[in-house]
Structures are given as structure tokens and as C-alpha cells.
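Field notebook, page 245. I keep forgetting to write these up properly, so this time I am using the form the group agreed on. The chain and the ligand, L4RZE5RM, are recorded exactly as supplied. Prediction of the bound pose follows.
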Amino acid sequence: MRTISQAEDLVDSQDPHHPANLICTLCKQFFNSNWCTGTGGGISIKHPDTGHLYVAPSGVQKEKMKPQDMFVLDGTTFEYLRVPKGLKPSACTPLFTACYKYKSAGAIVHTHSLNAVTCSLIFEKEFRIKGVEQIKAIPSSRKDPNTGKVLSLNWDDTCIIPIVENQPHEDQLRDPLLDAFEKYPHTCAVIVRRHGIFVWGPTIDKAKIFNEALDYLMELAIKMHQLGIPPDCDVGEESSYTSKH
Ligand SMILES: CSCCC(=O)C(=O)COP(=O)(O)O
Ligand SMILES: [Zn+2]
């Protein structure tokens, strides 16, 4: 492993899109959205050029982090290339590396979103919502036959996100996460009951979009549930659950 001073170049960049800078910027935004408060949640980003993995420290106020606080891991061996003095890597690191290894993720967003936690109390094994325009921001299991690119869900498709049980320690969530990967090979997220959500994508921009769209859908699902409308009911069927005819 390189010494701290030798590894400074791994986090020292004027580029706002450099992972060490971007994690700090986005965690501030996520704090303001109530997604990463009280030290909860976090973000990990793979450097698109070097393949290095950037991980935030554990137990710190995520909105106050500096680029120099970032841990850096080799993208293939997961060995630490940079360990900031006096800090521990995020407890979610084994979950982030699982997403890099098995989902070819370019970035992972973990939030303690109230909408995700509330949905984990309403839904049993899967979060399901259907027939909402915002669903078009979520990837589907289909690929474009010409380009091979993953296609988005159609607005009247059902968006399904698996829910796993929370565990006393983050590393114990790795096996449930791997089970969810196997059962839901096309999902871009896993909800952890009474805890939050992990969302990944091929890039940080995509992971951020998926997270925002899912949070919107989870908030809507809670409101539909409160109105007595099943969030995954067919389009046009909602009036049979309300007084509107
Ligand atoms: C009050 S946060 C408990 C740990 C957690 O769930 C989390 O997301 C933050 O863990 P970290 O080690 O990254 O601080
Ligand atoms: Zn968490």
C-alpha cells in the first residue's frame, strides 16, 4: 500500500466530477434531501478512467466530508490504496464492493430515505408500483436489439424492488444482498427493511437518477396506500378503490 502522502494524488483534483469531490458534493445534496442525515447513508463511486473505488469514511457527518477523507480501493482486488489517518471505511464497503463485483456498478447510492423505510413497513417482500410516468426513469429487463442498451420500463409497467431484512451489522447484509441479486437479476436497487435503500447504476449520474425516481415512486406509493389505492393496481382501476367514479 502506498503511504498517505504518496496517495494524495488519488484525491487531489480540481475537477468537480472527480469521485473524491463528487462524493462530497452529492452527500451535501443528499443531506439536504433528508437522505443522509445523522451520519447515515453514503455514496461510493468508481473512477471512470482508473477504475479505483472511492468510499467515504464511517460514522462521520456525510455533509461535512472533504476529498481528503476518502478511502480508495483497487477496482479489481479491492485492496486499499489509500487509508486516511484516524478514519475507518464506511461499514457499507462490503455492500458497495458486492455491487461493483456482481452488478458491474459504476456507483452506489445508499440512503436512509424515510420513503424507503416507510415502504419497507407497507410492503412485505417487494415494493411494487405501476402506471406512473416516473417509472420510465427505471431500467427494465429488456435490451434494445440493435444497440444492446438496457431499455427503461414503460410507464404502464410494474416497477418491482426487492426488500431484504435489516441485520445488526452492515457486513451481514452482504448475503441477503447477493440473494436479491440472484432472485431479481435486473433490479437496480434493494430496500433494506427499517433501514433504507441501496441503488446502483453504470455511472453516478444514472445511480442518482434511479435513486431520485425511486424515492418519488416510494413517496407516491405511500400516498396511494394512505388513500386505499394499491400502488400496483391497473391503470383505470384506481377509482374502484376510492369514492371517485
Ligand atoms: C446511523 S448510521 C448507521 C450505519 C449505517 O446504516 C450507514 O448507512 C452509515 O454507515 P457508515 O459506516 O458509512 O457511516
Ligand atoms: Zn445505512
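OBSERVATIONS:
- The chain is about 25% helix and 20% strand.
- The chain has a mean pLDDT of 96.
FOLLOW-UP: compare against the apo run.
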